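Structure first, sequence second, as always.
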């Protein structure tokens, strides 16, 4: 029933079953019939229904916001960590799925792979929209990478990236690069896959930056295309991946007075 209430205002993946005009007409007719038949008291059930619709929809909207806050904010930012402690039996299934996904994203980003994996198994995929399904795939990719299953991680990452969350893209992209860093063939496959997914080299954002870093790793000669500001950004990614040597070289490149080795 709660899921149906949320669907009325298009809060769920299924959206609105009735056009707004039709829904409004139905409510108006029902209200008139009840008022004529029972007087003002007849409007009470309709009032309860309207309250239920907006309450269920609000739960879904709050859960969706929690998911994106967990996805896009820095881990130490206020409001990033999900805090839902509601009862799944009294909440619309879509809201439950979104809250669980928000927690799974948070755990995956923090390296708590076991907790994230348990939450993923409890998420009803049918309740999620396309962008939310990509985040779910990203969580699975991060968990698989963290557990050493590179093949499965690559499969999920191909579905997930780009997720729409720069923070999640950075986490997943860095994990994938770290696994492939010493294998030029795998790096070429990864770089080409990002290109096919629409990640443009000169765009802003973590994935374009990581793609540029990948090309630099494959062909060091491309360093001529990197300016000082970009070198600083790529140095941070290189250090996060674990290549301190490349990070130092890029940091030197970022200093106008220093020679780049």
């Amino acid at each position: 029933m709660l899921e149906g209430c949320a669907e009325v205002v298009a809060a769920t993946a299924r959206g609105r079953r009735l056009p707004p005009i039709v829904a409004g007409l139905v409510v108006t007719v029902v209200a008139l019939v009840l008022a004529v038949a029972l007087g003002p008291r007849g409007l009470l059930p309709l009032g309860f229904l309207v309250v239920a619709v907006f309450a269920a929809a609000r739960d879904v909207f709050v859960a969706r916001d929690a998911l994106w806050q967990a996805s896009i904010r820095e881990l130490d930012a206020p409001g990033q960590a999900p805090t839902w402690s509601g009862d799944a039996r009294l909440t619309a299934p879509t809201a439950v799925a979104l809250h669980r996904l928000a927690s799974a994203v948070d755990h995956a980003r923090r390296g708590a792979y076991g907790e994230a994996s348990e939450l993923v198994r409890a998420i009803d995929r049918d309740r999620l929209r396309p962008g939310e399904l990509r985040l779910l795939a990203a969580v699975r990719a991060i968990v698989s990478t963290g557990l050493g299953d590179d093949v499965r991680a690559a499969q999920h990452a191909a579905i997930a990236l780009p997720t729409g969350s720069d923070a999640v893209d950075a986490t997943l992209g860095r994990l994938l690069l770290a696994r492939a860093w010493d294998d030029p063939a795998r790096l070429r496959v990864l770089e080409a896959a990002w290109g096919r997914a629409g990640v443009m080299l000169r765009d802003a954002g973590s994935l374009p930056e990581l793609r540029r870093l990948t090309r630099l790793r494959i062909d060091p000669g491309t360093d001529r295309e990197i300016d000082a500001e970009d070198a600083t950004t790529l140095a941070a990614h290189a250090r996060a991946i674990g290549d301190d040597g490349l990070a130092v070289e890029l940091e030197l490149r970022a200093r106008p007075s220093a020679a780049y080795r």
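Margin note: The chain has a mean pLDDT of 81.
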